[in-house]
Design goal:
102 residues, alpha+beta, Alpha-Beta Plaits, four-stranded antiparallel sheet, globular
């Protein structure tokens, strides 16, 4: 399994709008071979932002990479730049290979 995460520092007061963007977007993920699961996670609050993470689970690293090169990826991210006012800086990507599963 491979886990791909993007962390977002969502500006205080923009949380509802940020969540709506994610809940209403056409992610195309359910059409992608190797996709297992998606979650949008809401984390701790700081003085000026709330931490969020998009979390996708893939069959393996190769399935994730294939998605990033696909037309599904391009369609899902076509309007991503329109939402930058909702969060601070660029999303921080983190990718993880599964070492142990219980």
């Amino acid at each position: 399994m491979y886990i791909a995460m993007n962390r977002f520092k969502v500006t205080k007061g923009s949380e509802a709008d940020f969540e709506t963007v994610w809940k209403t977007r056409d992610s195309q993920l359910d059409q992608v071979p190797g996709f297992v699961e998606f979650r949008l996670l809401k984390g701790p609050e700081a003085e000026d932002h709330t931490l969020y993470a998009s979390h996708t689970l893939w069959k393996d690293y190769d399935a994730f990479v294939a998605w990033t090169k696909s037309e599904h990826f391009r369609k899902a991210h076509a309007n991503a730049g329109n939402n930058k006012p909702l969060y601070q800086g660029h999303p921080q990507f983190e990718g993880f290979e599964t070492v142990q599963k219980l």
